[in-house]
Amino acid sequence: MNIHEYQAKNILEKFGVPTPNSDVASTAGEAKEIADRFGGRVVVKAQVHAGGRGKAGGVRLVNSAKQAGQVAEELIGTRLITNQTGPNGVPVEKVMIAEALDIKDELYLSIVIDGDIGAPVVMASSEGGVDIEEVAATTPEKIFRAIGDPLIGLSPYHARDLAIALKVPDESLRATTKLIIDLYRVFIENDCSLVEVNPLVVTNDNAVIALDAKINLEDDALFRHQELASLIDLNQLDPLEQRAY
Ligand code: ADP
Ligand code: MG
Q1: Catalytic: 196?
Q2: Which end of the chain has less Cβ packing within 10 Å, N or C?
Q3: What pLDDT score does 132 carry?
């Protein structure tokens, strides 16, 4: 089961992973009010079960609360078509308003189950951002992998190796190592099938922050997580998928 970015972000925060200040809005008025609270310079992000939003106009940087309201008005009630949706796109019913960060570097971090090994694998790349698919296709050697032990977990030295592979500044190494360990706990303790942070960013003052968050939950384990099961958004699914839930 897929969940929205704002829901994934709540989970990350619970586990201590830093994310930008943000709030979610269902109307342009709410969006404006939230943007105002954050000082006006914000990013308006369509909440849909698909990536590729940036390139499709679903992530927009604005400089005032008024503009945030206008962009929210444009997005809410439409369907967003990205390279990860079908030609009909997916409905935008909510937008997330996030504080705009001053980004120095965009990195990539994700965790999936490697079916062949039968264990979680953590992937890290210093070449994160909207073109990670191209990195994977053309220069796969730029993606560093570490395997978690299903019983013991992810060892601290693996987490540190991953942080080094991300090429974060020295002063951010410790915080990045902790972030990776916390993200691994998100994956294990919520029975995820995917946790992806793209981009993980280094800000101008060397803070390391999860700017985007994607979580897929393992359907077969949802009975263990009643509170997560309720995060389902049937409107994001096509009719066939809706019938399956
Ligand atoms: P998607 O992966 O669906 O395209 P992202 O959340 O990754 O959406 O956003 C796309 C891009 O927009 C990011 O790579 C980043 O450059 C920019 N961006 C997103 N959120 C912020 C933010 N809070 N502050 C500054 N830039 C942002
Ligand atoms: Mg992204």
Answers
A1: yes
A2: C
A3: 85
Ligand 1 nearest-atom number relative to CA 102: 25
Per-residue pLDDT reduced to its tens digit, 153-195 = 999 999 999 999 999 999 999 999 999 999 999 999 999 999 9
- By DSSP bridging, strand 95-99 and strand 42-46 are antiparallel
Q: Which residue(s) pair with 95 in the sheet? A: 25, 46
pTM: 0.96
> How many whole angstroms from 130 Cα to the centroid of ligand 2?
6
In the predicted structure, residue 130 carries a pLDDT above the cut 80? no
Catalytic residue among 30, 106, 108, 184: 108
